[in-house]
């Protein structure tokens, strides 16, 4: 059978990775805000349901025991589509919040499983040279999913809120997410390579033995304690800001917010911030390649954390101009894209190398997501207590641990060649 050009499936595969995560982590925040849920409940529960992306290394070995990786990609994309459809219907129920949160949890588990299988297809179907060539496509189309879901579809929801009502507006948007996932599963049934058949792990005992060896060798790495501290603390401030920023934009001015409509937020995030993010990532890659990670890391940390000051400015000045607000967001996204490269390369070059490159990278991203979840879950309570203005001042103070651990973290000498096979994505 003739090999399908990766350009036909890599972009759509990583678009399918990005859509569920961004929808659950960001879009649902705006949806619940429009539906009248409190900031504390939104921040806590929408953070809780992304736990599967932290725990996904736990069931990853099981996917090696059955079928093909393509099979799991198609199944999870189709199930995800059905899940979004049922979620849309749940919004009309009297206890919609409980039911919809439960459904988001199911979609999250399904989405995390999809990510494992999708990365498996990528790694097994492409040569090392192809993996390096198409790694940029991954990040780009992961962010295309972010642009469409967080920008265009949020704008659509905001527009529909005025014509058909809030509930029906978000029902339409969630149903459209479901339709997109089902269409992608049908398309990938034709173009996606198998990614290899089952056989690396044949029994549950063997799977457990492999998993235990992965865990043991992960914690035996030199300076792993410092590495875990770095992975957790690098995003400590971001974890608190990410949930509250859209709520701050949406909140009434009388409550200290910017009073933006859902449609305005869609416009705000729709085009320029993702472009700034991608540009920052590309420039940071060239910058780090020239200077080396060890010499670049503190600069990357500064680019990542200092731009959070724009939200302190917005909370204090509360400007009405969408251009002013948008410029601040673009500045922050550029810094985010530039600085995030430091964390990604650290995990690739300091954590992943060894016997289980992919598994240890998965563990590192799991630790990263756990470190992000804890401050995110608490951010709503902190924001409610402090108010938006003092909360964003606190976010700036919360960047200090990131700078300290970046300054102090030791580097181990890694003899193994760093594999380009590790997919780079922004979560």
Characterization of this structure:
The protein is mainly α and 427 residues long. It folds into 2 domains: 1-194, Growth Hormone, Chain: A, CATH 1.20.1250; 210-411, Growth Hormone, Chain: A. Helix content is 76%, strand content 0%. The chain is built from 17 helices and no strands. The protein has helices at 10-34, 39-48, 52-55, 69-90, 96-125, 128-164, 166-191, 204-219, 224-233, 236-250, 262-270, 272-291, 293-305, 309-317, 322-351, 357-397, 400-408. The longest helix has 41 residues, at 357-397. The protein is globular. The two termini are 35 Å apart. Mean pLDDT is 84; it is low at 416-427.
Brief account:
Helix content is 76%, strand content 0%. With 427 residues, the protein is mostly helical.
Can you tag this structure with a few keywords?
Growth Hormone, Chain: A, mainly alpha, 76% helix, 17 helices, 2 domains, 0% strand, disordered C terminus, 427 residues
């Amino acid at each position: 059978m003739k090999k399908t050009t990766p350009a036909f499936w890599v972009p759509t595969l990583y678009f399918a990775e990005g859509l569920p995560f961004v929808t659950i982590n960001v879009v649902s925040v705006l949806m619940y805000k429009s539906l009248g849920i409190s900031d504390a409940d939104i921040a806590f529960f929408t953070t809780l349901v992304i736990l599967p992306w932290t725990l996904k290394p736990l069931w990853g070995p099981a996917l090696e025991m059955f079928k093909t990786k393509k099979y799991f990609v198609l199944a999870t994309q189709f199930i995800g589509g059905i899940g979004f459809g049922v979620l849309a219907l749940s919004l009309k129920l009297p206890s919609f919040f409980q039911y919809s949160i439960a459904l988001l949890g199911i979609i999250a588990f399904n989405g995390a499983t999809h990510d494992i299988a999708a990365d498996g297809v990528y790694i097994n179907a492409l040569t090392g040279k192809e993996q390096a060539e198409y790694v940029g496509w991954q990040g780009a189309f992961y962010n295309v999913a972010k642009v469409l879901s967080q920008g265009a579809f949020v704008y659509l929801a905001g527009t529909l809120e005025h014509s058909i009502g809030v509930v029906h507006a978000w029902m339409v948007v969630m149903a459209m997410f479901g339709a997109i996932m089902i269409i992608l599963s049908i398309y990938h049934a034709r173009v996606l390579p198998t990614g290899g058949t089952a056989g690396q792990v044949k029994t549950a005992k063997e799977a457990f033995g492999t998993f235990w060896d992965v865990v043991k060798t992960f914690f035996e790495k030199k300076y792993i304690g410092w590495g875990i501290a770095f992975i957790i603390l690098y995003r400590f401030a971001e974890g608190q800001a990410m949930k509250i920023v859209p709520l701050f934009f949406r909140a009434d001015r009388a409550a200290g917010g910017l009073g933006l409509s859902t449609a305005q937020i869609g416009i705000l995030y729709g085009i320029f911030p993702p472009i700034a993010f991608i540009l920052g990532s590309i420039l940071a890659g060239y910058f780090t390649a020239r200077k080396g990670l060890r010499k670049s890391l503190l600069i990357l940390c500064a680019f990542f954390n200092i731009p959070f000051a724009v939200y302190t400015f917005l909370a204090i000045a509360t400007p009405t101009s969408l251009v002013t607000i948008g410029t601040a967001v673009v500045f922050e996204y550029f810094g985010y894209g530039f600085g995030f490269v430091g964390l990604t390369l650290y995990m690739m070059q300091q954590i992943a190398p060894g016997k289980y490159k992919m598994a240890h990278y998965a563990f590192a991203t799991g630790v990263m997501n756990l470190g992000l979840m804890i401050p995110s879950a608490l951010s709503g309570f902190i924001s409610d207590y402090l108010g938006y203005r003092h909360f964003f001042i606190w976010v700036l103070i919360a960047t200090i641990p990131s700078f300290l651990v970046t300054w102090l973290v030791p580097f181990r000498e890694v003899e193994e060649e760093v594999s380009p096979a590790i997919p780079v994505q922004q979560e």
